[in-house]
UniProtKB/TrEMBL annotation:
tRNA-binding among keywords: no
Species assigned in the record: Ensifer adhaerens
InterPro entries associated with the record: DDP-like_NUDIX, NUDIX_hydrolase-like_dom_sf, NUDIX_hydrolase_dom
Cofactor: Mg(2+)
Alphabetical UniProt keywords: Hydrolase, Magnesium, Metal-binding, Plasmid
Protein name stated in the entry: NUDIX hydrolase
Nudix hydrolase domain: residues covered: 19-150
A GO MF term: hydrolase activity
Length: 177
């Protein structure tokens, strides 16, 4: 079996002038059966984003996405085996330059939320409905992806508990597991 973790974006490689990042789209199903997405604020502008960061030496893209979710959002869970989407955005670097970034986003089915985490004092985190998360995200491509999740989740049956049926987001975000 081919290892897809070595190059997380083989299908959609970053352009030469783009920098590559990896991120996580943390999600869960609330007790009422509603799908929820966790967003965090950026440290610089305070806008709502998904946890993401630069690739780390010695870590696969999946491991990096998991670590970013833990550090930035204080959540742990089960990651999809491959990215569920990619999106582009403009990043302002510490030196003031703007650079294009392509982010490979892994789905993260959240299993635990920490009370204290590394960047708690630097960020806010909040659970949103799919529609509200799409509205809060400034990154157009990522927002459109979340809107497709919202539309698709309406077509799938909600989890029924003991029947063992998968939730709508399991069906969509964990397909590549």
């Amino acid at each position: 079996m081919k290892d897809t973790n070595k190059n997380c974006c083989a299908a959609e490689e970053a352009a030469p002038e783009e920098m590559q990042q990896v991120g996580a789209l943390p999600w869960r199903i609330a007790k009422n059966g509603e799908a929820r997405i966790l967003l965090v604020t950026s440290r610089s502008s305070g806008r709502w984003i998904v946890p993401k960061g630069w690739p780390m030496k010695g870590f696969s893209p999946r491991q990096t996405a998991s670590r970013e979710a833990l550090e930035e959002g204080g959540v742990i869970g089960v990651l999809s085996k491959a990215p569920v989407t990619t999106y582009r955005y403009m990043k302002r670097l510490d030196n003031g330059a703007n650079v294009g970034c392509r982010v490979a986003v892994f789905g993260l089915n959240v299993r635990g939320t920490l009370v204290d985490w590394r960047e708690k004092a630097q960020r806010q985190r909040r659970w949103f409905s799919l529609a509200a998360a799409a509205d809060k995200l400034d990154d157009r491509e990522l927002s459109e992806f979340v809107r497709t999740l919202d539309a698709a989740s309406e077509c799938l049956e909600p989890p029924t508990g003991a029947t063992g049926k998968k939730s709508a987001l399991d069906e969509i975000l964990m397909l590549r597991r």
